[in-house]
Design brief:
Elements lengths: L25 E3 L5 E3 H11 L17 E2 L1 H20 L14 E3 L4 E3 L1 H4 L9 E3 H33 L2 H20 L6 H47 L3 H5 L4 H12 L18 H6 L7 E7 L9 H4 L11 E6 L7 E7 L3 E9 L3 E3 L2 E3 L5 E8 L2 E6 L3 E3 L7 E7 L4 E6 L4 E5 L10 E8 L1
Antiparallel strand pairs: 1-2, 1-3, 4-5, 4-6, 7-8, 8-19, 9-16, 10-13, 10-19, 11-12, 13-14, 14-15, 16-17, 17-18
Helix pairs in contact: 4-6, 4-8, 5-6, 6-8
InterPro entries: B30.2/SPRY, B30.2/SPRY_sf, Butyrophylin_SPRY, ConA-like_dom_sf, SPRY_dom, TRIM/RBCC, Znf_B-box, Znf_C3HC4_RING-type
Keywords: Metal-binding, Zinc, Zinc-finger
Family: Belongs to the TRIM/RBCC family.
């Protein structure tokens, strides 16, 4: 790393506060503070989230701007230091007392013009110092950029795998819901309930262990990438005269191998559906026929039941797809009701209840009392999500989904009809107003 002992006052403005060396590919934040890009990226990696300025602690949402002007100044200063080194008497050619302005790529040494023409170096590839520096730096930056893009992708996988706590909490909540559902069965099914809970805990513990192993594997792979990246960064900070004579072939080889490795993408935790005896039979005693109205056809990107694009940015959306949105003609404020929706012909769908649906232009506008279960395609798999609680680790239903509305209890439950199993249930007291059935879907 180049020394920060800068005598020229102008050069003091070219020092990175993180590495205390001269800037390497400088960037600046909205707060105005400037850093080496590599230093800032690794600083973010160390602190994880949220990202903040190392100087003033102001959050910056991982956004920064390349400082082209400062980059040019840095280049001038680094070349100036190189020339000072080459012009010094102690670094001139011992044999010819001339400046070493030629770089021999074969021998990885600096030569004067007379030495470059000698028999010893005939047949070697030579170039000027300026060209050699530019090519070496470009190659270093190319490797760093390639590795960092891989690291950012890998970080997404790491964040996905770091959900062991969420998984554990989700299973605890599900256990309470299962107990509540069995408590409403008549006659009581204590033995079946205990077996169900035992099965749930076994699946939960098995999946939790798999999540931990998957996370450890991904973190290990990421650490290997980070190690190579740090080596590249350290090398890029060296003075030009030191950088040129380094043999970087092995480092570049390891960088290429690291960038080409297949990255482990982690597991997708899913709970298998578990049948609850008598569940659908009990719910059918509250069954009602729902008549829908206001069916509207438009592209999916026009429909935002609860701004799903903001919650799940990687969700696959296609504005050309046909989307149907329907509301029940009748609203419910008292009693218990159950209805079923056939979803086997739809790729993505939303079922649940809403308060007073209305449109803003061609978009559906949701309210805090809208309670949905939504099936979306995310990356290469399907997920089930709700307005509160985010993603749910439940097996996707492939046929009819039952919706149970308890107005007195203030909650909605969703059932996989074919398997007579509970998908999920909102907590009691979630709403206290009249609501009506809601349904939307994307046609296959």
């Amino acid at each position: 790393m180049e020394s920060d002992n800068l005598q020229d006052p102008q050069e003091e403005t070219l020092t990175c506060s993180i590495c205390q060396g001269i800037f390497m590919n400088p960037v600046y934040l909205k707060c105005g503070h400037k850093f080496c890009e590599a230093c800032l990226l690794l600083f973010q990696e160390d602190i994880k989230f949220p990202a903040y300025c190392p100087m003033c602690m102001q959050p910056f949402n991982q956004e920064y701007i390349n400082d082209i002007s400062l980059k040019k100044q840095v280049s001038i200063v680094r070349k100036k230091r190189l020339m000072e080194y080459l012009n010094s008497e102690e670094h001139k050619c011992v044999t010819h007392k001339a400046k070493k302005m030629i770089f021999c790529d074969k021998s990885k040494i600096l030569l004067c013009h007379l030495c470059s023409d000698s028999q010893e170096h005939s047949g070697h590839t030579h170039c000027s110092i300026d060209v050699a520096v530019q090519e070496k730096m470009e190659e270093l930056l190319k490797h760093m950029d390639s590795l960092w893009r891989r690291l950012k992708i890998q970080q997404n996988y790491v964040e996905k795998e770091r959900r062991t706590t969420l998984w554990w909490l989700s299973m605890k909540l599900r256990e309470e819901v299962i107990k509540r559902v069995y408590g409403k069965q008549c006659p009581p099914l204590s033995e079946e309930r205990d077996q169900h809970i035992e099965c749930l805990r076994h699946q939960s513990n098995t999946t939790l262990e798999e999540l931990r192993k998957s996370e450890a594997t991904i973190v290990h792979e990421r650490n290997q990438l980070t190690e190579v990246y740090r080596e590249l960064m350290t090398m890029s900070q060296r003075p030009y005269q030191e950088l040129l004579v380094q043999d970087l072939d092995d480092l570049f080889r390891r960088s290429k191998l690291a960038a080409k490795l297949d990255m482990p993408q982690g597991m997708i935790p899913r709970l298998r559906a578990h049948s609850i005896p008598g569940l659908t039979a009990r719910l059918n005693s509250f069954r009602v026929k729902i008549s829908f109205k206001h069916s509207i056809m438009f592209g999916y990107t026009s429909l935002r039941p609860f701004d799903i694009r903001l919650l799940h940015e990687s969700t696959s959306l296609d504005s050309a797809e046909t989307h149907r949105v329907s509301w029940g003609k009748k609203s419910f404020s008292r009693g218990k009701y159950y209805w079923e929706v056939d979803l086997k012909d739809y790729r993505r769908w939303t079922v649940g209840v809403c308060k007073d649906p209305w449109l803003r232009g061609r978009s559906y506008v949701a309210t805090p009392t809208d309670l949905f279960l939504e099936c979306l395609r995310k990356d290469d798999h399907y997920i089930l999500i709700t307005r509160i609680g985010g993603e749910h680790y439940i097996e996707k239903p492939v046929g009819q989904v039952g919706v149970f509305l308890d107005c007195e209890g203030g909650y909605v439950s969703f059932v996989d009809v074919a398997k007579s199993s509970l998908i999920l249930s909102y907590s009691p007291g979630t709403f206290h107003c009249a609501v009506r059935p809601f349904f939307s879907a994307v046609y296959t």
